[in-house]
Amino acid sequence: MGILNFKQDRPLDLIGLGRLCIDLNANEIHRPMEETLTFTKYVGGSPANITVAAARLGLSAGFIGKVSDDAFGRYIVQYLLQAGIDTGCVAVDREGAVTGLAFTEIKSPTDCSILMYRDNVADLKLSPADLDEGYMSKAKALLISGTALAKSPSREAVFMALEYASKHDVVTFFDIDYRPYTWTSALEAGIYAKLAAEKCDCIIGGREEFDLLELAMGHPLKQDDDWTAGHWLKHKAQLIVVKRGGDGSKAYDRSGNIFRGSTFPAEVVKTFGAGDAFAGAFIYGIMQGWEIEKAQTFGAASASIVVSSHSCSDAMPTADQIQEKIDRWTSNQLIG
Amino acid sequence: MGILNFKQDRPLDLIGLGRLCIDLNANEIHRPMEETLTFTKYVGGSPANITVAAARLGLSAGFIGKVSDDAFGRYIVQYLLQAGIDTGCVAVDREGAVTGLAFTEIKSPTDCSILMYRDNVADLKLSPADLDEGYMSKAKALLISGTALAKSPSREAVFMALEYASKHDVVTFFDIDYRPYTWTSALEAGIYAKLAAEKCDCIIGGREEFDLLELAMGHPLKQDDDWTAGHWLKHKAQLIVVKRGGDGSKAYDRSGNIFRGSTFPAEVVKTFGAGDAFAGAFIYGIMQGWEIEKAQTFGAASASIVVSSHSCSDAMPTADQIQEKIDRWTSNQLIG
Amino acid sequence: MGILNFKQDRPLDLIGLGRLCIDLNANEIHRPMEETLTFTKYVGGSPANITVAAARLGLSAGFIGKVSDDAFGRYIVQYLLQAGIDTGCVAVDREGAVTGLAFTEIKSPTDCSILMYRDNVADLKLSPADLDEGYMSKAKALLISGTALAKSPSREAVFMALEYASKHDVVTFFDIDYRPYTWTSALEAGIYAKLAAEKCDCIIGGREEFDLLELAMGHPLKQDDDWTAGHWLKHKAQLIVVKRGGDGSKAYDRSGNIFRGSTFPAEVVKTFGAGDAFAGAFIYGIMQGWEIEKAQTFGAASASIVVSSHSCSDAMPTADQIQEKIDRWTSNQLIG
Amino acid sequence: MGILNFKQDRPLDLIGLGRLCIDLNANEIHRPMEETLTFTKYVGGSPANITVAAARLGLSAGFIGKVSDDAFGRYIVQYLLQAGIDTGCVAVDREGAVTGLAFTEIKSPTDCSILMYRDNVADLKLSPADLDEGYMSKAKALLISGTALAKSPSREAVFMALEYASKHDVVTFFDIDYRPYTWTSALEAGIYAKLAAEKCDCIIGGREEFDLLELAMGHPLKQDDDWTAGHWLKHKAQLIVVKRGGDGSKAYDRSGNIFRGSTFPAEVVKTFGAGDAFAGAFIYGIMQGWEIEKAQTFGAASASIVVSSHSCSDAMPTADQIQEKIDRWTSNQLIG
């Protein structure tokens, strides 16, 4: 048995919960958005990307979210279905909400920015009443995205979902996923992310995202991965993953182990989606019962594939593609 | 002298006021938006389109509006400048407003729809304090778009602009431009559009748009162009133009004349932008001192060119292109 | 026939439209509110006060407004009914609005202030759909209060009511009644008050209130009663009344006449309500067909009675009480 | 040592946090509010009442809250100071918020209702930035009121205050204090009250208030005090108090003890304030290190005094008054 205790008799492996939006990626890259002419449409949002990644790797996946009652909302549901994701719990807003948009501007591989449309978005209208306890009880794991905490009633839906998950022994992954533009202040984000993190089994975030949780603890930031892991492993969490960008990832368990994941070389088109690709493949590995380091390697290889492509969700690789990447890199290193 | 008394010594011919937004037109046409993949970006918004049309025809033009403080806002200003439009009175919002978006879905030439993003948009943040009386006093004419009346403080900016225009004998064109999604109700739209119409020299609208003004008069709709014109010519207006789509246009003056404008054949890609092309070329003609019917013909020819193309603002033709269209059609008819 | 042409065959003399609220007047006067202990409850709001004044003088009166669905709303309706005012067109809000409150602090006769509760108030929820054209057509006159213009949908209800009034030859009195706390800015107030004033037969306001209308004209304030009257008499208005506090009132007609009204001595308890008492009695006089100066005298006497008492609405005098005040003063002066 | 571990070296005994408002109690009782004429002004709000009660009993008390920048806000601060409560951490709102109001209507001793003004109230503008960690570290105990969770940013201020309390070993009392009118739904209230309750040392509430917390657990309500106490004593709480109105109170500790508190007879004027009086005196008793049942008796006697009077805060008794009530009742019973 792995580090997290998945109820093996459940029909659904993973349910994602939270943001479903549209990415509009500039086709003309390496220039400011004033000079781009055309955009390509993709499904986006961190939990959507991670769930698509997991489904592409073969997990049985579902989603809990809310979409707008328009062409974009219908497109999102259709895309998830085509990716093999159950959408029975994707509600449709009837109050005039819109789909969140993310226009991406790729000035250079290391200088990307996003222009967001987050006013009156459907994903943040998900409410506790949209949840189906029976549905959740059929899943091995639930992935919560921190952006779903940004506003009511989505914020309350997250806490209610965590309650159902706890009641039915659904393993909870929490991707902190901090996006400043949806919050009033970093402190507000930290306060709610901390409350959610206290109720999750595995917390995944970047260094700055873990700092955010510390903001809400009322002490000067320690910015120390070991302290961070030590703190959170005293709560419900069994596994803490700190993503460190180009420096790879560090995973901590309750036995005091530290697992270090490296990165793979890539011809970087843009950095968007790296974290989601990592998380999707890492969760897949953990749910296969793999050693933690193997899951980290799988995550890093997936990330290196996604940053070399133009999209996020659409570029999520299959297990074979990831393995091929790993094998090629390993043989290169042997030769070198 | 023409029907409207333009102060000929003014350096600016026409100032547009109101909506500046981004059109994202689906490149894959004749299918629902769920199936489109890419979009091309254009500057949009009825008064923006009309002002671009006028500038392309050679009028000296300026704009009064507000844009977002982001790549889209900068793109709009840059586009207007390249079109030869003065942007000295285009303010930049500093409160986090976004640029309005219009995603167009072209299912067939006659079945087009628009998915709008109008929450928290910069154009409706234009306030009376953003106006510059001195700037307005330098113009022969002002074009007001009805959508600028949809919310405060833009609504108040319109009434203040009309006050300055009246004080400085600037001729005012009012394009009713009713877009239901920005209003609480049709009656609300009608009430403010009526208040603005009472203060304008030339009112341009579709039959349904003039009906809207009647809603606010508290009587059953008459839906009669002659009654409409008769009513409005008793106020400040000297010229009433009813656009009737495929049936052409009707213009009325205070002498009891009715001028009928026909339409030009076109291979219609989409119907968006036809009204703006007509208005831009019609206003141009009126400002040249042309006979009203000649201005109507010019407007109709321009509309026929725009509906055959993929965009609105970008497709606005030059005077030569319009004249060529008219000449070809005239000779065709002679031959036929 | 008097200066304003009232349709004499109408069953209702005057309909008030606008604010209905509760005044809570400190019983312990001449001290700051921190030290007051108890408050007495009265119906308040400028148009309510004026309509009560008119009804007490014997006019057949009605009211168009909206009250909260609670004890305060029911109290207001009950009070109006007891004052003999028809409340058939006083709607009840069903969306959780509250009754506006005005806590008055009477530090000294000349230093009074008001602490207002104006968030989510029922009176500003009056909408065009709440109006009954048939009801309005039964009235000789309509009194509009400027505070009803402060927010949508009440703002639109005012413009719609003015449309019905115009259609049915109902004489319109406009009391500018500027209350800064309900507006975003003085300019916003000025813009809408000006639009309404252009459609009224008689405009009543203080010097500062007429200045407000000038703010919206885009020129430096002239602060000149003669200019003010001259300007407005070029619109629909037949009668302009400038209230000058202790200096009395000035009324102007289209024939170039200026009528000066003086004031009456009073033991002033508080200055609140003086303007409403004046307006109620002045309108009464005008509707009796009196000479303008006689109506001004009647208004001034009524004001002197109200400022000597603790309340506004409740203290509105009868015609006999006003006449007695006038007679006593006249005989005093003769003796003196 | 008592059941809760108070740091005895702290200068402040108790800090209240949350609602500060004005009660306006009808002077004419036993009739509907439509018929009341005058109101008397008192400081109100559950945590304000409890803190006043504690101060009157001799505790060294402070308050963390926010008041409006007007006469009512100044009155509240002045009243707290006169009651001996430190107001160094009562912030003043500068954004135009008002003081919450509660008009009480006492139709009969058992039929009281409240008309609330809770739009844009200052108390719910308390933000995490208004908190002073140093101040909190000087207190033995913190009293949190559930109404402070009703809206942001006050909601976040509560969670931040609980964090500081935990960090500095400040004992936390949580009074659920559910007031439906400030919440979107009972479920929303339950979700946040549950999150706060999980972090408190002593939870005090009525049966229906504990039901609210269960709503957020996703199971049918058990409505069973024993189950309730058992559940909450598995979290941080050491002491659970269920108030049962006329049936007295039940207190539970972690050793499995159940303490039953009875009630005292009273000539009931109104039932408002009974719970706050109980809580104030109960907390006082607990902080004196008394047996739990003695604290319950003290609380019940205080409640019986307050329900016999016209106000809440102002009627909070001294320790002598409570003791006298207890002694009189005891001797009556002995005689009887």
TrEMBL record, chains A, B, C, D:
Keywords: ATP-binding, Kinase, Nucleotide-binding, Transferase. The keyword Kinase applies. It is an enzyme of class 2 (transferase). Pathway: Polyol metabolism; myo-inositol degradation into acetyl-CoA; acetyl-CoA from myo-inositol: step 5/7. One of its GO terms (molecular function) is ATP binding. Belongs to the carbohydrate kinase PfkB family. NCBIfam families: myo_inos_iolC_N. Catalyzes the phosphorylation of 5-dehydro-2-deoxy-D-gluconate (2-deoxy-5-keto-D-gluconate or DKG) to 6-phospho-5-dehydro-2-deoxy-D-gluconate (DKGP). This is 5-dehydro-2-deoxygluconokinase. It comes from Cohnella ginsengisoli.
